[in-house]
Amino acid sequence: MTESRFISSAVSNGNPYSTKWEAPSNIALIKYWGKTEPQLPKNPSLSFTLSSSVTTTEVHFLPSGKEEIEFEFYFEGALKPDFHPKLNSFFERIKTYIPWITSYSLKISSQNSFPHSSGIASSASAMAALSLCIMDMEQTLFPELSKADFNQKASFLARLGSGSAARSVEGPVTLWGKNDIQNEGSDLYATPFGANLNPLFKDFQDTILLVDKGSKAVSSTQGHQLMFNHPFANQRFVQAANNLADLISIMKSGDLDGFMRIVETEALSLHAMMMTSNPYFILMQPHTLEIIQRVWKFRKQTQIPLCFTLDAGANVHLLYPEMIKDKVRSFIADHLASFCQKGQYLYDSVGSGAKKV
Ligand code: PMV
């Protein structure tokens, strides 16, 4: 499958159009860390699509007659020219695939459901929401586009904005990257897990403990870069592929012990890569470790299947089945909330993917 199949033959019809999409954040269970140009992952990854942590983006497309991409970007109501470099490089990357876009001037307005500076990365949900608005416009110019092709190309475009954004179009579980298990697995876009997902995972809970709400000392762009010439990179890519194979069968069978073991291995391996990069860095904070120790102790004492994963940051995502949520939530309130900044944490759960609003 090559990129060329995503080049659109649609042409502008000279009419303005407005659309609004809501796209979710996602939390990786098998982590993507290391890439080559253009945003091609060094290993396959798998994530839960979230439901409450979303970006809502509205785009007004106005015919401009200028043959170059023009846009204005508003975040939470305010004009934000500081986002222009990131958006410019996104448009540069995607314009080959959506040549019609140069006939329009875009007014893009975006907002997040999660609080400002929560340490929750919004690039995945933001790039997915914008890509879906663009695809919606393309659909009006090219009505023959099927739903499956629409989603695939939205994921493809989102990936070019932020790798993990490829996994923020559909739900409840998505896979991104070539792998030995799925024939349809691709480095170009993510695909939904499919019909065999065990029902246990369809309403899994994710409580995000906000340990550090500040911006990260090392960005994920720099982190990916440090996987070049990393002494353990190749082993890590092999490990991720093997963990994915195991997790795929676990996501079908519903083996919770296996699930917890792989998810925590992946989180700690991701952070181990950071600690062994050159230069090395640590994104976990003392409270991240305190929470992990307490989760392990609680699990040992109660046999309740609660596990954690980590993003590229200090926040902790606690994952657990819906049926035990009351017990876990009391534990969080009584024993973990004090390790969160200002006692803050967010309840989220697995969701079904982006939608038009
Ligand atoms: O999409 P990026 O470039 O922000 O990288 C995401 C990296 C992780 O969140 C750490 C892992 C992942 O697979 O989402």
Which of globular, elongated, flat, extended, rod-shaped describes the shape?
globular
CATH class of the largest domain: Alpha Beta
Helical fraction equals: 25-40%
CATH third-level topology of the largest domain: Ribosomal Protein S5, domain 2
Count every helix, treating DSSP H or I runs of 4 or more residues as helices: 8
Number of domains: 2
Report the β-strand fraction as a percent range: 15-25%
Order of helices and strands: EEEEEEHEHHEEEHHHHEEHEE
Ligands bound to this protein structure = (3R)-3-hydroxy-3-methyl-5-(phosphonooxy)pentanoic acid
Class from secondary-structure proportions: alpha+beta
Largest sheet: 8 strands, mixed
Task: Report, as a whole number of angstroms, the end-to-end distance.
Answer: 32 Å
Q: What value does the Rg take, in angstroms? A: 20 Å
User: What's the architecture of the largest domain in CATH terms?
Assistant: 2-Layer Sandwich
Instruction: Provide mean pLDDT, rounded.
Output: 95
Would you report the number of β strands? Answer: 14
* Spans where pLDDT lies below 50 across 5 or more residues: none
What do these coordinates show?
- By secondary structure, the protein is α+β, with helices and mostly antiparallel strands.
- The protein folds into two domains: 3-197, Ribosomal Protein S5, domain 2 (2-Layer Sandwich); 202-349, GHMP kinase, C-terminal domain (Alpha-Beta Plaits).
- Helix content is 34%, strand content 23%.
- The protein has eight helices and 14 strands.
- Strands 1, 4, 5, 6, 7, 8, 9 and 14 form an eight-stranded mixed beta sheet that branches. The chain has a four-stranded antiparallel beta sheet with strand order 11-12-10-13.
- Helix 2 (123-141) packs across helix 3 (147-161) and helix 5 runs antiparallel to helix 6.
- It is globular, with a radius of gyration of 20 Å.
- It binds (3R)-3-hydroxy-3-methyl-5-(phosphonooxy)pentanoic acid.
- (3R)-3-hydroxy-3-methyl-5-(phosphonooxy)pentanoic acid binds next to helix 4.
